[in-house]
Design a protein that fits this description.
The protein is 36% helix and 23% strand. Strands 3-2-1-4-5-6-7 form a 7-stranded mixed beta sheet, sandwiched between helices. It is of the alpha/beta class and 191 residues long. It binds 5-O-phosphono-beta-D-ribofuranosylamine. The site of 5-O-phosphono-beta-D-ribofuranosylamine has 14 residues, from helix 1, strand 5 and helix 6.
Length: 191
């Protein structure tokens, strides 16, 4: 029986597309939930016939109301696994507690190095020769949850933020599919 996966994305959605393209008997992306009505990810979901829900901060009185609406929206799809893939909001307490142990995030750096929204730029600025991709459980912090798996990506001479980020995304897409399939099956990463 395929596990039900909800993906959270705010941007172009190439990681979402990688998951959509990799769906098989082990997992099914049942919905995209986004905070951004302009997200490119919406097109990928629509073309794949996947439901889309927009939970836009501007529609809510305050952050707590948005947190709760996001958690309720995700819950509606009854996911076994929630994947944050380029979701540019910190998921608040309501979501973190409700989906503990089945809420994962992908981050374009080797956490704990370079947390936050500018990981690739920060790694370049730091002059490191290696960075990479991290998939981790989401906890109440920002990019602080337990690491599930990491993979190193070399920083090449002449790299700028775009070239380095795209090379990291290639690795992220592979790792994300591997981790989701593992969650649905052998669970070598999810003791
Ligand atoms: C990924 O690198 C993710 O780690 C970061 O945002 C990027 C999303 O890429 N948080 P895309 O929108 O899936 O192409």
């Amino acid at each position: 029986m395929a596990i039900r996966v909800v993906v959270l994305a705010s941007g172009s959605g190439s990681l979402l597309k990688a998951l959509l393209d990799a769906q098989d008997e082990s997992f099914e992306v049942v919905a995209l939930v986004t905070d951004n009505p302009e997200a490119g990810a919406i097109g990928h979901a629509a073309r794949a016939g996947v439901q889309v829900a927009v939970i836009d901060l501007v529609d809510f009185e305050n952050r707590e109301a948005w947190d709760l609406a996001l958690a309720d929206c995700i819950d509606y799809y009854q996911p076994e696994l929630v994947v944050s893939a380029g979701f540019m909001r910190v998921i608040g307490g309501a979501g973190v507690s409700r989906f503990a142990g089945r809420l994962i995030n992908t981050h374009p750096a080797l956490l704990p190095a370079f947390p936050g929204a500018h990981a690739v730029k920060d790694a370049l600025a730091a002059g490191v020769k290696e960075t990479g991709s991290t998939i981790h459980f989401v906890d109440p912090g920002v990019d602080t949850g337990p690491v599930i798996v990491q993979k190193v990506v070399a920083v090449l001479d002449g790299d700028d933020e775009a070239s380095l980020h795209e090379r990291i995304k290639v690795v992220e897409r592979e790792l994300l599919v591997e981790v989701v399939k593992d969650f649905a099956g052998p669970k070598k990463y999810f003791k």
